[in-house]
Design a protein that fits this description.
pyruvate-formate lyase- activating enzyme; 18 helices; six-stranded parallel β-sheet; alpha/beta
């Protein structure tokens, strides 16, 4: 039996991910492609089922595995690795296969430490299908493009596979193999449940120095508006889905396609909500587009800004003018949508002055929410090379990268940016943004209006989680306990 497993994630250590339990798009697509080719596969979402290793093993032992697939990004890699090591010990005869962004970048670490037998590099659907067929038939893996594996104690990296050009050829994700989708909760959502993630495009044409492009590449590929609408309609009819979370990197890049999808959704007989939590570019919004998005249920828009200093933005190759940020935020507020922004602190071209300036800039923008992140230098990026050549990593890189998301650690120092300063500014950024009397009042007003509008306990839970996360971030609980 082939098992695709999403590992259990310890939410007591995982801050922002408490907002939702999201089914894995990657596993959904892999399973759908296997089923389309008459290959049996089973998905175990140990996370949503809150399965400890003993309960997970009990399920797998019913039909022993020949192949176990695990995926992970930097948020979940720590748990994927832990699960893989436990599975390897319990089911030694099964091939452990890793895929996803983290595995693609860190395949040497996974193979050299015997965490996986094989790593799928880049976009996985075609490669995984071909790999499964090769393993089942006993073929030599040298002919399977897009994988890395060990042979005679040496790592073999096969030629990479070209990404899928026509995304409409992909089957819809195999959500029927997951636990009942009503189990998945979206505490940031409007309709609560059921909801599903949605991929409408792959790739990103920009050259931001912290991004790897290791999975979907730089070439932007779109699903047609008709194909996206067909998927939405199919799962609305099958599961009574109320909300779809768009997971694209650059959803609004093709304005005509987005407007066409909005038109199809507005004329659909059932009302659904579309939401854009993954962030959109500030220079790819306008009043007409925002109104169209609002008409199909979009209630909040997140902008990836990264820095409040134009010189820093230019040097990190964001290709964004801060004037567009101000303009787009004004339009979002004008249309009465929730506005969020993402900010990175400690970029390699930052100084103490620009960090302080960015914190002041975000307060002056005054979106509803600001999310600050300490910059992470992923291996395989230009950012990583800059830090390696001009900065100092503060701890063994692999351990640091696996722990950073959970603990909010500063991973490197560069220029005049030292660890103590960045830790102080990270805390200060949240405190000075959220602990303003007018900000507190505006958020309470915002949440209260949404509770009244949608008559749901979801927003109350959302508010509770939002406040709780901030309290933990500010370390207020520690002070109280003392």
């Amino acid at each position: 039996m082939i098992y695709l497993i999403k590992p259990y994630i310890d939410r007591n250590k995982f801050g922002i991910l408490n907002y939702w339990d999201v089914p894995s798009l990657a596993l959904g697509y892999l399973a759908a492609v296997l089923e389309k080719n008459n290959i049996k596969v089973k998905i175990i979402d140990a996370d949503i089922l809150r399965l400890n290793e003993r309960d997970l093993f009990k399920i797998i032992k019913k039909v022993p595995p020949t192949i176990i697939g695990l995926t992970g990004n930097v948020f979940t890699a720590k748990y994927s690795i832990y699960t893989a090591l436990k599975l390897k010990k319990e089911f030694g005869n099964a091939n452990i296969i890793f895929g996803g962004p983290y595995a693609t970048i860190e395949y040497e670490f996974l193979l050299n430490n015997n965490i996986a037998e094989i790593v799928v590099l880049g976009e996985g659907e075609k490669t995984f299908l071909e790999l499964i067929k090769a393993l089942q038939s006993g073929e030599d893996l040298k002919n399977t493009k897009g994988i890395a594996y060990k042979k005679d104690k040496k790592i073999i990296v096969n030629p990479l596979r070209e990404n899928i050009q026509n995304l409409d050829d992909l089957p819809f994700p195999a959500w029927h193999l997951f636990p009942n989708i009503k189990k998945y909760k979206n505490l940031r959502g409007v309709t609560n449940k059921p909801y599903l993630p949605l991929m409408t495009s792959r790739g990103c044409p920009y050259s931001c120095i912290w991004c790897t492009k290791c999975i979907h590449g730089k070439k932007l590929r779109y699903r047609s508006a008709e194909n996206v609408f067909a998927e939405i309609r199919y799962f609305v009819e099958k599961y009574d889905v109320k909300e779809f979370i768009v997971m694209d990197d650059t959803f609004t890049q093709n304005r005509v396609r987005v407007l066409k999808l909005c038109f199809l959704l507005r004329n659909y007989r059932k009302k659904i909500v579309l939401n854009l939590y993954n962030g959109v570019r500030a220079d790819k919004l306008d009043d007409f587009l925002i109104k169209a998005l609002k008409s199909v249920g979009v209630n909040r828009i997140t902008l990836g800004i990264e820095s409040g200093n134009q010189m820093v933005l230019n040097r990190i190759k964001k290709s964004l003018d801060l004037k567009d940020v101000i303009k787009s935020l004004d339009l979002i507020k004008k249309n009465h949508l929730i506005s969020d922004i993402f900010i990175m602190l400690g970029l390699p071209f930052d100084t103490k002055k620009t960090v302080n300036g960015t914190i002041r800039f975000t307060r002056s923008l005054n979106p509803d929410h600001a999310y600050y992140f300490l910059t992470i230098p992923y291996r395989g990026t230009e950012l990583y090379e800059i830090v390696k050549n001009h900065g100092t990593f503060l701890e063994e890189y692999q351990i640091g990268i696996l722990n950073q998301i959970n603990d909010g650690k500063v991973l490197y120092e560069i220029n005049d940016l030292k660890k103590d300063f960045l830790e102080k500014k990270f805390s200060e950024a949240y405190k000075t943004f959220y602990l303003r009397p007018l900000k507190i009042l505006s958020l309470l007003k915002l949440y209260f209006e949404f509770v009244l509008k949608f008559r749901s306990l979801t927003q109350i839970k959302w508010l509770f989680n939002e406040v709780l996360a901030l309290l933990v971030k500010f370390k207020i609980f520690q002070k109280i306990l003392k």
